[in-house]
Specification:
Helix content of chain B: 25-40%
Number of strands of chain B: 4
Oligomer: heterodimer
Mean pLDDT of chain B: 85
Distance between the termini of chain B: 21 Å
Mean pLDDT of chain A: 86
Helix content of chain A: over 70%
Number of strands of chain A: 0
Number of domains of chain B: 1
Low-confidence stretches of chain B: none
Order of helices and strands of chain B: EHEHEEH
Radius of gyration of chain B: 11 Å
Shape of chain A: globular
Largest sheet of chain B: 4 strands, mixed
Strand content of chain B: 15-25%
Chain lengths: 330, 83
C-alpha cells in the first residue's frame, strides 16, 4: 500500500528522475540553488500530472450531476438533511466561479431554501474532490479526510444558521420573482462525457497554471531561502495570532487551491501549524473579494455580512482545532 | 437572426463570442450579437451555467464554450440543444 502511495501520489520516481537528470548536467544535489531548482521542477510537474488525471476523472463523475439535476434532487428534501445533501453534492457538481450567481438564482427561484443553497455554495469551492486527492499527496490521507469532514461541517452549519435566522428576507427581490424555466436535458453519450472531461482539464489548466507556478515558486522560497526562524516568529504554532493572521491575509486573496497547496506544504515543513496553513487555504478558496462583490448583486448586505463573518470565524475555529490535534494527524 | 451571448463577461464568455463571430463569418450569415451581462436577464432564460447562447429567444446551449464547428452546427440546425 505504501509503495503504491509513494509512487502514485507522492511520485517519488519523478523526484528521483529529476535528480538524476540534474546530476547528468553536472549539478551537485547538495547546492542550495540546485535543491530549489529540483523542488521547483518536481513540484510543478507533479501538480500538473495530478491535476490533469484528477480533473479528468472527477469531471467524468461530475457529468452525471449537472446543477439542473442537483436542483431537482435537492428539491425533494427539506431541512437539515437537505443541507447535508447540498454540502455533499457541492463537492461533485461542476461549476466555474463565474456561474455561482446564475446558480444561486436558479436554486432560489426553484424554491430551494436559502440555507440549502448556501450549504452548497460554501462546500462547492471548499471541498473540491480534486483537492482531497492533492491533500493526500502533499500531506497524508488522514489530513485529507479531516479537511473534508470539517469543510462539510462548515457548509452544513452555515446553511443551518442562515436558515434559522430566516435570511431569505435579505435576498434581492428579483431573485425570488418568476418561476423556473426547465430546459431540456441532453442525453450525454460516453463520448460526450469524455469530451466534457477533456475540456474541463484544458479549461482548468489554462486558468490555474500561473497560480501553480507562482505557488510553487513561493513554496520553494519558503522551503529553502527564508529562514525558518523568521517564519516561525510570525506564524509559529506558539503564536496565538497566527491563525487569524493567516485567515485575514487569505480572505481577500483570489487563488486556486492548487496554487495554495505548495505554499501550504512549504509552510508546514518550516514549522507552521497545520491548522494555520489549512485555515489559510480555506480562507483563500471560500472567500475572495471578487466572489463577495458578485454575491452582493443577489443578496443584501445583512446576509452578505453574516456569510463573510460566519466563514471567517468558522475557518479560524477550524485552524485552532487543527493546530491542537496536529500531533495525531501528521 | 438575433444571437444573445449570456454571461458576466468572464474569459469563457468572450471566447464563445469570438467563436460565434467566426462561425457566422464562415457561414456568411448576417446576425446581430447581443451580450447579456445582467444576471436578472440571464436568469430569465433559466440557465444556471454560463456562458449561454440564445438564438431568436431560444436557449440552444449553456455551460459550455462552444468551438467554431459547434456554433456552425447550431446555426445550421436551430432548435438543437448542445450541452
Amino acid at each position: 500500500m505504501n509503495v503504491l502511495y509513494d509512487a502514485i501520489l507522492k511520485m517519488t520516481w519523478l523526484s528521483d528522475g529529476i535528480a538524476w537528470i540534474l546530476t547528468q548536467f553536472g549539478l551537485q544535489m547538495d547546492q542550495p540553488l540546485v535543491i530549489s531548482l529540483h523542488y521547483f521542477i518536481y513540484d510543478t510537474i507533479k501538480i500538473f500530472i495530478l491535476l490533469s488525471v484528477l480533473i479528468y476523472t472527477i469531471s467524468y463523475i461530475q457529468s452525471y450531476f449537472p446543477p439542473e439535476r442537483t436542483r431537482k434532487i435537492l428539491g425533494r428534501f427539506n431541512g437539515f438533511f437537505a443541507r447535508i445533501l447540498a454540502a455533499l453534492l457541492g463537492t461533485i457538481t461542476p461549476f466555474c466561479s463565474c456561474s455561482s450567481i446564475p446558480l444561486f438564482i436558479g436554486f432560489t427561484k426553484a424554491g430551494l431554501n436559502v440555507g440549502v443553497t448556501f450549504s452548497f455554495l460554501i462546500s462547492s469551492p471548499l471541498v473540491d474532490l480534486a483537492s482531497v486527492f492533492l491533500l493526500m499527496s502533499v500531506f497524508n490521507p488522514k489530513v485529507a479526510i479531516a479537511y473534508v469532514s470539517v469543510g462539510l461541517l462548515l457548509a452544513v452549519i452555515g446553511g443551518t444558521l442562515i436558515s434559522w435566522l430566516k435570511m431569505e428576507r435579505y435576498v434581492e427581490p428579483f431573485v425570488l420573482k418568476g418561476g423556473v424555466t426547465e430546459l431540456e436535458e441532453e442525453k450525454m453519450t460516453h463520448k460526450d462525457r469524455h469530451n466534457f472531461s477533456k475540456d474541463q482539464v484544458m479549461d482548468i489548466v489554462r486558468k490555474v497554471w500561473i497560480y501553480i507556478l507562482v505557488g510553487v515558486l513561493i513554496g520553494a522560497l519558503i522551503h529553502d531561502w527564508i529562514p525558518a526562524s523568521w517564519i516561525q516568529a510570525v506564524l509559529g504554532e506558539d503564536k496565538w495570532y497566527s491563525v487569524p493572521l493567516a485567515v485575514l491575509v487569505g480572505v481577500p486573496m483570489y487563488a486556486d487551491i492548487f496554487g495554495t497547496l505548495p505554499i501550504a506544504e512549504a509552510l508546514v515543513s518550516q514549522g507552521v501549524g497545520l491548522g494555520t496553513v489549512l485555515a489559510f487555504m480555506m480562507a483563500v478558496t471560500t472567500l475572495s473579494l471578487p466572489s463577495i462583490i458578485l454575491l452582493k448583486k443577489v443578496v443584501k448586505k445583512e446576509l452578505l455580512i453574516l456569510f463573510v463573518v460566519y466563514c471567517t470565524i468558522g475557518i479560524m475555529i477550524i485552524g485552532y482545532v487543527f493546530n491542537a490535534i496536529q500531533g495525531i494527524l501528521i | 437572426m438575433i444571437i444573445k451571448i449570456l454571461g458576466s463577461g468572464c474569459p469563457n464568455c468572450l471566447r464563445l463570442e469570438e467563436n460565434t463571430r467566426t462561425a457566422l463569418k464562415n457561414l456568411g450569415i448576417e446576425a446581430e450579437i447581443i451580450k447579456v451581462k445582467d444576471y436578472n436577464e440571464i436568469s430569465q432564460y433559466g440557465i444556471m451555467r454560463t456562458p449561454g447562447v440564445v438564438i431568436d429567444e431560444k436557449v440552444v446551449s449553456y455551460g459550455k464554450v462552444l468551438n467554431v464547428q459547434e456554433v456552425m452546427a447550431l446555426l445550421n440546425k436551430p432548435g438543437h440543444i448542445r450541452l
